[in-house]
Design a protein that fits this description.
The complex is a heterodimer of chains A (about 270) and B (about 280). Chain A has 13 helices and no strands. With about 270 residues, chain A is mainly α. Helices cover about 75% and strands about 0% of the residues of chain B. The interface between A and B is large, with 90 and 89 residues.
């Protein structure tokens, strides 16, 4: 790549090819989900028949509802616990908080399969029947760390001046948290909640290890369906899943802005990966 | 507000993570020393030979393969991801934000769905085979599995490198030129060392999940390309050998934690050397 460091033509070529590599398979899934025929090779007409087939398939519809339910409960519980944890980690001065702050990163670097096996053996040893509840418990465990990372990032930049002002004006500590800290944190909390929803809705590995027989969440259902080959209906399911993830990640980026805070949602999102 | 007040906020989360994260991993360790019960399950005991089995000639290649595939994935992600991040950061102009958001978009889509999209493209009855007019024969090969891993985790490489490039002062490149550096020299003596932390972060973020991955090998590969993730999954579903599965899980986790520690140390040493040079 002689001269490539300064002359962008070669670099743009690599970049364009990468975009093609990234989007080609997705485009195929979306296009063929609207195919009028059953073929996975030839596009013939436009129709919604595979979406109808998805909706009319009792198992798939049940799975969609299960996935939404799992993601919703996971989001609420982990956002509450995670926000509290972030407050404790940042605001308490002792060693406990800072140690917890470091330990909290471990779930983030744990391979999903390790987390899945751990959750599986816990429920097996406790004799808990695998169900939606066990999936939700496993999802919450791994979502807490994401919430902490996002909320903590915002909290660290806030300072304690306003809380102290509230105390000086006669507020109790609880009132200061409820009326001053939480409203200021709201955009970060919402962004964290949206990210958790998308992650939980998408999760396959953890769900695979903690799911019961029925109802199974959507990714697990797709996985079992794939063993019998690909069908156009799966393309429709995949497209719907893409839309749901895109919607919630979009909300995570947009909500902080809509709420009128200076900080961009993109910063909230990218900040967590560094 | 005093410390005692804030410490109360730590309690629910700390208890939750202790019970649902630390305790289960402890149980996994305990099971890894047990004996397989007949239909799954475990009889606790002291059987360290489960760990010996992991290094058995039958299974050791699978562990090595997992590390090899993950390393190849990280290198390929670097080879593709660095030019892309560099192009967007340096030549993206006012489209920069849109371009980086666009390149990250696919990674927000379900990994399973994205992997299966490749099956639809590459299978012998798939779209590409139809276009080419003959079966591709790519599925079930290491190429397909590593390709699937690259496709799955490339975003984790692009983002930290892009962030490092964005943090860099463009005046440094100008300075390199002013000192009669060729573009190549300027790149290797100025830009590369400045972005090394981003490269290291990216390599870690790609390598860690890739080692434990079992979706890519399951969907795009076959028995010859199985990775440790597939082996673990089999022990809990099908083979019903929980202790062996748990031992493999502990080996995987221990390897990755040691890797993280040495990798971060090595990275810091490399940065110091760069700073001195």
């Amino acid at each position: 790549m002689r001269g490539g460091y300064d002359r962008p033509r070669f670099l743009w070529l690599v970049t364009a090819l990468t975009y093609a590599f990234l989007f080609a398979p997705i485009a195929v899934v979306v296009l063929f989900s609207f195919n009028g025929e059953k073929s996975l090779q030839v596009l013939d007409g436009l129709s919604f028949r595979w979406y109808e087939a998805f909706w009319n398939d009792d198992e798939l519809r049940e799975s969609l509802m299960a996935s939404i339910q799992i993601a919703a409960i996971t989001t609420v519980v982990s956002t509450v616990i995670g926000t509290a944890l972030a407050l404790g980690v940042i605001r308490s001065r002792g060693k406990t908080g800072s140690w917890l702050g470091i330990l909290l990163l471990i779930p983030l670097v744990t391979p999903e399969i390790v987390a899945g096996v751990s959750a599986f053996v816990l429920f097996a040893q406790l004799g808990v029947h695998l169900s939606l509840t066990t999936i939700i418990l496993a999802h919450i465990t791994f979502s807490i760390s994401y919430v902490v990372v996002v909320v903590r990032g915002r909290l660290a930049t806030m300072g304690t001046d306003r809380e102290e002002a509230a105390l000086d004006l006669g507020a109790t500590p609880w009132q200061a948290v409820r009326l001053v800290t939480l409203p200021a944190l709201w955009p970060a909390i919402l962004a964290a909640a949206m990210i958790v929803f998308a992650l939980s809705f998408d999760d396959f590995v953890l769900s695979f290890f903690t799911t019961g027989e029925t109802p199974q969440p959507l990714p697990v259902r797709i996985y079992s369906a794939l063993r019998f080959g690909i069908s156009p209906t799966i393309n429709a399911v995949g497209t719907v899943m893409m839309l749901v993830s895109a919607l919630f990640i979009g909300l995570a980026v947009a909500l902080p802005r809509l709420l009128g805070r200076q900080e961009s949602g993109m910063a909230v999102l990218t900040g967590r990966s560094e | 507000m005093n410390d005692a007040f804030w410490r109360r906020f730590l309690v629910p989360g700390a208890l939750w993570l202790a019970f649902f994260f630390a305790v289960p991993f402890g149980i996994a360790i305990a099971i890894s020393f047990g004996q397989a019960a007949e239909f799954g399950g475990v009889i606790y005991g002291w059987h360290p030979e489960n760990y010996g089995d992991a290094l058995d000639p039958l299974f050791a290649p699978i562990l090595l393969r997992s590390v090899g595939y993950a390393a190849a994935t990280a290198l390929l992600c670097l080879a593709i991801g660095y030019p892309v991040a560099y192009t967007i950061a340096r030549f993206g102009g006012r489209w920069k934000n849109a371009l980086i958001a666009f390149v990250l978009l696919p990674f927000l889509i379900n990994y399973l769905v994205r992997t299966y999209a490749w099956v639809a493209l590459l299978s012998d009855e798939g779209l590409l085979a139809n276009l080419v007019g003959q079966p591709l024969g790519v599925l079930n090969t290491p190429v397909a599995v590593i390709g699937g891993l690259v496709y799955g985790y490339l975003g984790f490489m692009i983002l930290p490198i892009y962030a490092a490039l964005e943090r860099m002062d463009p005046a440094l490149i100008e300075a390199g030129k002013d000192l009669y550096g060729t573009p190549r020299q300027t790149f290797w003596h100025v830009t590369w060392p400045q972005t090394l932390p981003g490269v290291l972060a990216g390599a870690l973020l790609v390598f860690l999940p890739a080692v434990g991955d079992f979706v890519s090998a399951q969907l795009l590969g076959g028995p010859d390309t199985y990775m440790i993730g597939n082996l673990i999954q089999q022990q809990f579903y099908g083979a019903d050998n929980w202790p062996f599965g748990a031992a493999l899980t502990v080996v995987l986790m221990a390897f990755l934690m040691l890797f993280v520690i040495f990798f971060l140390r090595g990275g810091r040493a490399a940065e110091r050397r760069e700073a001195l040079a």
